[in-house]
Amino acid sequence: MPKILVIEDEAAIRRVLIKILSEENDKYEVDEAEDGLAGIEKIKKEDFDLILCDIKMPKMDGVEVLEAVKKIKPEIPIVMIYGHGDLDTAVNTMRLGAFDYISKPPDLNRLLNTVRNALDRKELVVENKILKKKVSKKYEMIGASDAISQIKDIIDKVAPTDARVLITGPNGTGKELVAHWLHEKSERVKGPMIEVNCAAIPSELIESELFGHVKGAFTSAVKDRAGKFEAANGGTIFLDEIGDMSLSAQAKVLRALQESRIQRVGSDKDIKVDVRIIAATNKNLKKEIESGKFREDLYHRLAVILINVPALNDRRDDIPLLINHFANKISEEQGTAKKSFSAKAIKLLQEYDWTGNIRELRNVVERLIILGSTEVSETDVKLFASK
């Protein structure tokens, strides 16, 4: 049953609101507070699904209550109640984060519709938070080695800034996890995180993919299309395998970095974009610069912060943690009981040459869970994880 708090200093209005809400098919549990200070004390101690709050009150007015609640429990929707002459203030509270406002005396249908809509919004916010936690878990960084601890420290320092980051390391080491954590710990977390695999897009289409195009720009351009930079506006764009990007696309990315503007293919109109760029590559870009395949000026623009993700062979101490993590995840995905790994099996896996890095380790763990004994043994590893 949704719980609603009514904060109103006029006893008569408070009684009317409580009566309407309490009698609404027994749907709502209603509590009350006679002023803003008393309301805030209740909000600190209890959980509410919705707050109805008067604007003009002694001790602490409705605007102050709204600002305080947004700091303490920002997910709770607040509907402001205004009297004669307070309409301008009520409208302004929407800019401060109020869900809606209703007038005194409250209209029955308007009140109940507003309450239902606010509670639906609260449910949606909670669902989004749960989904976000799942996303965060998906991109969890597993490891306690010095190398991984250093990367986590760098992320904590760099993420809140808009500094551009270049992530390097072999394929399968988890460069995309670093990019996602940089975004999720940043001030741009409410904005989009757009991923572009530069190696997977044909060179003749990369510019259209990144910057969009206008109708008629090329044979298959039958209508205007926004690119990834526009889609990432207000958030982060992750350019994976940037070492495979064509020189002409590199020049346009450089301009976007310098001027925060792009042009769609076939257009001369500038479009302003507010995007943080995180790039990754498995190539040695300095060697690519020497061979004329990568622009040096772009490299220096991208590599404000450099993060190198080590190969799994260089962080073998993390292998037991990774095995346990993958075993849990795979059993959860397949709906089967979790299998444990014997100490000898783990030791043997630590000694393997992991050329495919973490991606290869996950595949091997999954194979052993499917084919191995109830407790995966050293023999299972020799049988099913052989190179």
From TrEMBL:
Pfam families, alphabetically?
A: AAA_lid_14, Response_reg, Sigma54_activat
On this chain, the residues bearing 4-aspartylphosphate are 54
Show where the Sigma-54 factor interaction domain sits.
Answer: 141-370
Organism superkingdom: Bacteria
Task: Give GO BP annotations, semicolon-separated.
Answer: phosphorelay signal transduction system; regulation of DNA-templated transcription
The residues covered by the Response regulatory domain are 3-119
Entry keywords, A to Z: ATP-binding, Nucleotide-binding, Phosphoprotein
**Which CDD domains does its entry note?**
AAA (cd00009)
Gene3D superfamilies named in the record: 1.10.8.60, 3.40.50.2300, P-loop containing nucleotide triphosphate hydrolases
InterPro entries in alphabetical order: AAA+_ATPase, AAA_lid_NorR, CheY-like_superfamily, P-loop_NTPase, Sig_transdc_resp-reg_receiver, Sigma_54_int, Sigma_54_int_dom_ATP-bd_2
Q: Does the keyword Nucleotide-binding apply?
A: yes
Q: Could you cite one Gene Ontology molecular function of this protein?
A: ATP binding
Carries keyword RNA-binding?
no
Q: What is this protein called?
A: Sigma-54 dependent transcriptional regulator
